[in-house]
Every structure is written in structure tokens, then in C-alpha cells.
Amino acid sequence: MASLTSSPNVDVLVIGGGNAGFSAAVAAAEAGAHRVVLIEKAPVEWAGGNSYFTAGAFRTVHTGTQDLLPIVNNVDSETSKIIDMAPYTKEDFRKDIHRVCLGRSDPALAQALVDDSNDAVKWLAKKGIRFQLSFNRQAYKVNGRFKFWGGMSLMTENGGKGLIADHQASAQRHGVEVYYSTPAKRLTTSPSGVVTGVVVEYKGVDIIVNTNAVVLAAGGFEANPRMRSQYLGPNWDIARVCGTPYNTGEALEFAIRDVNAKQAGNWSGCHSTCWDANAPADSGDRAISNEFTKSGYPLGLMLNTNGVRFVDEGVDMRNYTYAKFGRAIHEQPEGVAFQVYDQRAIPWLRDEEYRDERVLKIWGATIEDLAQKLARNAGLNAPEQFVETVKEYNGAVYASQKENPQRKWDPAVKDGLSTQSSTKKLALAKSNWALPLDQGPFMAVKVCCGITFTFGGLAVNPDTTAVMTSSDREVVGLFCAGEMLGGLFYGNYPGGSGLTSGAVFGRRAGTAAAKVAANKPGENLSLAGTTYSARL
Ligand SMILES: Cc1cc2nc3c(=O)[nH]c(=O)nc-3n(C[C@H](O)[C@H](O)[C@H](O)COP(=O)(O)OP(=O)(O)OC[C@H]3O[C@@H](n4cnc5c(N)ncnc54)[C@H](O)[C@@H]3O)c2cc1C
Fold this sequence. Notes:
The structure is a single chain. This protein is an alpha/beta fold. The two termini are 29 Å apart. Strands 1, 2, 9, 10, 11, 12, 21 and 22 form an eight-stranded mixed sheet that branches. Helix 1 (19-30) packs parallel to helix 8 (159-173), helix 1 (19-30) runs parallel beside helix 15 (497-519) and helix 6 packs across helix 15. The chain is built from 16 helices and 22 strands.
């Protein structure tokens, strides 16, 4: 049986066993690397990093249903006839990144992501990742047809759980050795700065694993309260962690320390969502996973504990706003808010997020009754203001409906049903899907900010993902992908881009690492498995 200390020498060592790491490892094996090893800090029970917790949503360029049907397993020929799915072009994807990241995304990285997205997803499908069309999350059935919206249509079967199971099987088929409970602690280099190995803790002992190339795919620092408050700002140490507790940022820190890796991207930014306020604080739950997300807000309102709205819930399709509204909640008093829905909206909420056994619901026969119950049991400080806000909102919606009777509610497009009209305007509009909240009984759920992943990372050469030094030279033998790669996302991101980024850049990283490995085979053979203390 293979062990980390056995020969032959490692060609490519991948650090981190999420979507980016597995993509890199399989790409390296496919590109001809002889011995590919993936080390993962978490025990096998926590396999898959944040990628395990995802809904498995992949954003990709496509030319329409016919382009995607060959790689999905949940569409029969009858269903295929009632799907409305507009093509999602390179220009659409590029513009979406540009728009939601406020023009700050590194253009070369964004272009690489866009250009390779379709090919990367099809490559994953060939590797055995099972894809489906995302009927439940990305389509509404309107007039008997499934209308896909938001530029995203693909998910993996059984979400992140299925994705990781498929990655593990694929890695095994490609001969990748995977070691759990094996954290990387530092990089070793030659006097000229070429990466020669990684110090890892293996079976309780620090050893040096010598290798010809290393791919960093160890996630961000979202599960590290110290780094969160250091980089994201005050109070971020108390945000709730949506995913793995093992993404604690040390690989970012040791790359900066050991090879002078250059930092890139939005170190004070993160992806954070509306999260169940009753979810655990310091990590996600492997069974419940992303079902703690509460993303129904375009169908209702969000009010803080002072009874005041604080975002335009309908400013854009949900998957262009959900990654930034967590931060908006975090900035409210006590870092919580209430999502409020009436009987018109409730049937449209996603069952996996809002079913009775998943979330604590607070009901009121009237808005006044709901406000009293929230004040008694859930921390609402200003019930009168809560009622006033809803009434003012309803008044604005009625005025807008009167002025624009031709506008029809449609959750699959930005329908223009808003709170704004010539007679009445709210200071904070709801720009789309603004129906009155007037059909009781009314339901509220309490939400908080869940941090999903951090945006700050390392600068890379977009073609190969070679890590750059702060003097803008490539570190020979070091590559980076996934959350660790900085510069793509700022403040927000188009939903489903994280997994696609891991696949696109993981694949590039693995391929480039295999090439480097092929050029220096066996260079460090004599050091394989040396204990770290013996080497000092
Ligand atoms: C609840 C939730 C839902 C999400 N849904 C989606 C979605 O549907 N679509 C989407 O695109 N994105 C989604 N995301 C974001 C997505 O999870 C990330 O963009 C993506 O998974 C990152 O992949 P990765 O491989 O870089 O990191 P990860 O999957 O987190 O893998 C990193 C791995 O590195 C390991 N590691 C850390 N430090 C070390 C070390 N020192 N040594 C060895 N190993 C180490 C960690 O244990 C972890 O397993 C979601 C995130 C969450 C939390």
C-alpha cells in the first residue's frame, strides 16, 4: 500500500482536497505526471472542503439547452421540449463578472474563466462528474414551461456531496494518492527559490515530502476568526461559517512567508449569504449543508431588529445579490434580520431551504400579530416600526400597481414590479417582484450572515496559475487554484462561479505542474520522506 514516505518521488503534490484540488490532481495525472499526491488537512469524515457544502452550481458559457443536454442526466425528451433557456454567451459571463465585481476583477483571470468555462465543465463530465439541469434552483415553471434565469443552469447530482464523491472516484481511477489528516505546514525551496517540497504533518510527525511541483488549493481563511477580523474587519470574527472549519488560511500565510508570494484581490471582501440565524457558529453541518441558506428574499422583504429595511431585495436576480447580502445583514444591529413572506410568496420558496423541519418559522395572523411575536420571541426591538415599514411598502406597491397595471409578476425575469411610481417612492426601493405583503397568515424567519468564502488570495499567471512573487517573478514549481487564487472576485460574484473557477484554474494548474514535473524528474528523490526535524 502506498504511503507518503514511500518511493518513487512525487511528481505533483496538491494541497487541499476540494473541487480545485481534485481538478488539479486529475489534470496532472492526465497530463502525464507519474506520481500525483493530494494531501488534505481534514480527516476523511470532512472530505471535500467547502466544495462538499455547495449546491454544486456551475456557471458556464453555453449556446442553449442543446449544448448542455449531452452532459446532464435528468432531462427526458418530453421535458426538453418545455425548457426555455437563453444562451449564455462569453460576453454575458464577462459582463456579469464586470458588473457585480464593480469592474475590479482582473481582466485576464476573468477572460480565462469565461473562455474555459464550457470546456472545463465538459471535461469534468468526461471525468465522471454527474451534471443535471438545475430545475429547483434556477428555473421557475411559468405557464407550463421551465424558464431558466440568472445565466446559470447546471448543478451536480446531489450537489456538493455528489460532486466530491465523483471527484474521489475519478481521482482513484487516475491513480491519484489521497492522504487525509495530513496538513501542509510550509514550503521548502532550493537556494535559487525553486519549490522543492512541502513540510507536512503525517501520522503526527512533520516530514518533508519532496516533489517537482506543488499546487496550492487549500481554500481561503473564512474559518479563521483571527484572520477574518484582521482582513475583513471588526466583528467578522463572530460571523457564522457556512462550510468547512478547516479553511483557516495557513497555506496563504506560508506561501507569502516562504516564497514571498504576492497577495492579490479583495482581502477585505468575501462571499457571505443570508444564513439561518439558528445554524451552528463555527462550521457548517455536513448533513444539512447549504440548506441553511435562506435565499427567498426577492419574494419578500428583509427588516432588521429596528424594523427597517436595509437592501433592495429585488435589485437583481437572486444569484447576483445573494453573495453580498450576508455582509449587509452583518452590518445591521446584532447582525441579524427577519425575512418576511405572505401567502402569495410562500408557495414559491424553495422547499429545501424553508420546509418546516429545516427552519424555525414565526407566524402571525396579521402583520401586527407577527411583529408582536417577533418582539416577544425573536429579538425584534421595534414592533411598531416593523408594522409601519410593511404598511409604507404596501402603500408604495399599490400606487405602483395602479400606475402600471400592464406589469405582470414573473420571478424568472426582472419584471419591473416595483415600489416606485410618480405618486409614491420609497427611499429604499424594491425594484422587482414587489407584490404587496397583505395576504396572511404571515411568516418570518430569522437570518444572519454566513461567511461562505474569502476573496483575497495569491497573484498568479492566468495561463498556468504559476504563483507570482511580490517582485512579479514566477515561483518555479508552485501553482494555485480555487479560493486561494486572488483577483477574480470583488465584493460580490456571479453565483456558481466559484466551482467553475476551481475547475478552470485547477485544470490549468495541474496541467502546468505536470509539465514542470516532466522537466525535472526525480530531482529530489533522495530526500523523499525525510523527517522535518532531521532536516533542520
Ligand atoms: C454553503 C456553501 C454553498 C456554496 N455553493 C456554491 C455553489 O453552488 N456553486 C459555487 O460555484 N460555489 C459555491 N460555494 C463556494 C464554493 O464552495 C467555493 O468557491 C469552492 O468550493 C472552493 O473550492 P476550493 O477547492 O478552492 O476549496 P475547498 O473546497 O474549500 O477545498 C479546500 C481544502 O483545502 C483543505 N486545506 C486547508 N488548509 C490545508 C492545509 N494546510 N493542508 C492541506 N489541506 C488544507 C481544506 O480542508 C479543504 O478541504 C459555496 C460555498 C458554501 C460554503
